[in-house]
Each structure stands twice: as C-alpha cells, then as structure tokens.
Amino acid sequence: MVSAADRAKNPTRTSVWLERGKPAGRARRSDQSAPSLDRDRIIAESVRLLDAEGPAKFSMRRLAGELGVTAMSLYWYVDTKDDLLELALDSVFGELRVPDVEGAGADADWRDQLRELAVSYRSVMVRHPWVSPLVGRYLNIGPNSMEFANAAQKILSRSGLPAHGVTGGLSAVFQFVYGFGTIEGHFVARCAEAGVTQDEYFAQAMGALRERPGFHEAMDLAEELMEARGGDTVEEMRERDFVFALEILIAGIEAKRGR
Amino acid sequence: MVSAADRAKNPTRTSVWLERGKPAGRARRSDQSAPSLDRDRIIAESVRLLDAEGPAKFSMRRLAGELGVTAMSLYWYVDTKDDLLELALDSVFGELRVPDVEGAGADADWRDQLRELAVSYRSVMVRHPWVSPLVGRYLNIGPNSMEFANAAQKILSRSGLPAHGVTGGLSAVFQFVYGFGTIEGHFVARCAEAGVTQDEYFAQAMGALRERPGFHEAMDLAEELMEARGGDTVEEMRERDFVFALEILIAGIEAKRGR
DNA sequence: ACCTGAACACCGTTCAAGT
DNA sequence: ACCTGAACACCGTTCAAGT
C-alpha cells in the first residue's frame, strides 16, 4: 500500500498491481481488535453491487453505505475508485475455469482446451457485464488475468500455428470472445433493467426497426439470414452464432498451420 | 423530438432513433432570427471534446461551456446525455468507408471488401476510443450503423458460407475487430494521456512485469512469442497481429464453405 | 491503525421564469 | 421558440481531526 505522498513519487504508476510495498493492503496490526473492513470484503461487496445495480449506480458512497461505514473509510484500503475497480476486475477473472495446460493437460487436444477457455471467458463477461469496459481500461496484469493469458498462450502454442502467427491467433480468438461477450452481456443487462425477457426486448426492437422508413431492404436481408440460422429463442440464436464463429476460428487456425 | 411528457408515455424507448416525431430535432421556426444552437453543432462539438479529453471529462456543463451557452440549453435539443452520446456514436460511424456492395461492387472479391470494411472499422475505434463502450451500450440502429451492418451482411453473404453460418461469420469477424480496436484504442489513448510514446509505455509496463515475483515463467513464453512475431515498434507488432488474425478468419470462412 | 465530518469542486436533470 | 438561474440530489477526493 502506498500513501498519497508515495504515489506522488511514482506518478506514472499505471496499475494497482504495480504498487510498491505490500500487495494485499497495509500491514495488519498484531493487535487483537480487528478492523471492520479489509480489502477482500470491499472487493467482494463491490462485485456484488456492480452485478446487482450496474456500474452507473456504483459509487464509493453507495458501497460504503452497504458496508456500514463512511465513504472515506474506503480510502484507507484503496487509493482511488479506479484502483478498486481494477481489483474487482481481477477478482472476477478468478472465476475463469482455466484448463490444465501443464502436466497431463499438455497432451490434451488444443481445440478442446481452446473451446473450454473461450466458453469460460464468455460466461464471465455475461455474468458481469461491467467487466468488459474495464478490460479495455486497464492493463490486465493481475494474477488471475495473467494465469488466463498464460494458459491461452500455451494452448495456441500447441495449435500448429507458425511461431510468428501465435500472437495473431490469440488476438483472433480472444478478441472475438471479448467482443461477443461484451455485446451479449450488455444485452442481457439491458433486458434485466427494463424488466422484460430477452425475447420480448428483441421482438420489440425488431418491430420498431421494421417501421423505420427506408430500412425495409436492410431488414429483409437480416431476417433472411436469421431465418437460415434458426433457433427459437434469442439465447439459442446467440449460442449457434458463438459456436459456429468459434469453429470458423479453429478451422482458420488449422488452415494456417505451418504458414 | 419528444418532450418529457411524451417520453413518459413511451417509457420503454430504448434508443434516440426510436423517437416518435421529427427525427432530426424540433421543428425549425420559419422566423428570421436563427437559434445559436442546433443538434448537428452539438453533436460535432461533442465528438471533438470526446476525442480531445476522453469520456471521463465529458459533461453537459463542459460541453455547454465550449458552445458558449448554459448546460440547460442543451436539453432543448436532446432529452438526456445518453441520447446525445448515442447520436455522437452514429455520427462517427459516418466516417466508415463502406465498400460499394450494390452495383459493380457486388462482383468484387468478398475477401477484399471484408478486409476494407474491417480496416475501416478498426480505425474508427482507434481514432475515437470512447466509441467502443458505447457500441456495447446502445442498439446501434442509427443510419450509419445500419449502412455498415447492411454492407457487412451483403459481403458475408457472398463468401460461400452456408446460409445458416452467415450470422456466425459476421460475429467472428466483426466482434474480433471490435475487441481488437477497443484494446488498441484504449492503449493509444492511455499513452497520449500519460504523455509518453506507445513504445515507452510498453517498455515500462514490460519492465515492471518482469520484476514481479512468480511471473518469470509466464513472461518468458510471452516474450518468445513476441520475438517470433517480430516488429520493431508497438504499432508494427499490432499491425502484424491484426493482419494475421484477419487472414485466419478469412481462411476459416473458406474452410467452412458449404458446410 | 483505523475511521469520521466537513468541505471542495464537481455531476445530470427539473422547473419556473425570462425574452 | 429558445435560453437561463436556481435548486435538488448526487459524485470522488482531501484534509484535519478523532479514538
């Protein structure tokens, strides 16, 4: 933990994870009277609030209220709201089911492991729609993010892609999943806020669009394509798109093997 | 344009573009004295400010100040800040160079057109890093967004993908570009804010990471992969990743033709 | 070591009032 | 038709002070 004065000496610090000093908060006193707060409690409650009410309503004052404390108490444990968000971000990355890529897992089919990691990443983004803007905002170098990135690198390294293409392959797959999960997560959150099902929301938006003058032609093609894809619910349609897109990516990687 | 009272009658409105009444602002009076403001000026200045100072510093009060007017004047032209952002979003989508997919363009190679559209989308995201969170937030049904989506659909429809796979293919390509452009745009913006070049920022972050205990192994693989990819500057490295990733996607689509 | 109260410089938006 | 001033209910953060 770093005081405001220390921070002034390190003005280019770009991440909580690059703090000097104790990484997990200020030194705990050995004294018997336990403090009412700690970083982990603050982070856990932040995640809960962000999930429940969305990032727009998340404030230091609101969070403090939920913890039965004044807003200023929080500043004993984190330097800024930004740092807190970065901590919350890495904390939900802990939910990722990262396949075993070391011992026995190093012999598994890279395609299966890639699918597993992609599916898991997607579901984190959907469960926590506030995560995706933060992934863009921070460096993503917390321990859980790093474990994820490391596993992804190992999996793609075994795909047969030429060495010069592995980072590009990583981009292709995980930026896709990021984009997909972002849009999906926001859609789910919007429906929940509006108090309608995804199918209701979708039907309403499509209806409104069809009435727009000059958009008939565009909608015709869109509907034709949606028809061909099939799927009875919005969730099923999205699922088909995700699966097919992932298969395109895997097929593309296979096509680029050794070139 | 819709008054607060009208809006109350349409509580499920989910986009400025689904407003009832005049789509381009309130009716202009025929009177000779021109008003000092109009929607287009407000939108243009919003884009300028968002580019220059980022979304965190963008406020109705700040914007009004820049336009030489009080904050409340703006509410004559837009219902909420949210609506204004949605308008600004579609406005920068107007910068997209959408290939001709209708007449002669319908015979062009779909790969070339897909690359052109992807490159253009990426560069919009990088020039305007505030765009990417908004793409997640809104429905993206403004006229420029729709033209983009329509062109993308037409291009993918000619790729040889089976009809049921076209929407998945669209996801794969454009969610990838979205994710890539998001991360890239934020990185560029962060460097500008910190007043360092991308290469300096990158070197600093890598250096800090290498010093972290227990991250040696992960960094070794990452550096090996970056070595193999090559590229002397951060921009060049990113360029290689983007190009290769896009070729993976195209190869994947080709592999899925007719299946 | 840990927490608080008051204060500063901000927000988006409403509403009644001006011209 | 278009714009303003005052007001409401908020923000993140600092700082001096309490225990």
UniProtKB/TrEMBL annotation, chains A, B:
Keywords: DNA-binding, Transcription, Transcription regulation. Residues 1-37 are annotated as: Disordered. Coiled coil: none annotated. The keyword DNA-binding applies. InterPro entries: Homeodomain-like_sf (IPR009057), HTH-type_TetR-like_transc_reg (IPR050109), HTH_TetR (IPR001647), Repressor_TetR_C (IPR004111), Tet_transcr_reg_TetR-rel_C_sf (IPR036271). PROSITE patterns: HTH_TETR_2. Residues 59-78 bind DNA. It comes from the Bacteria. This is TetR/AcrR family transcriptional regulator. The lineage of its organism: Bacteria, Bacillati, Actinomycetota, Actinomycetes, Kitasatosporales.
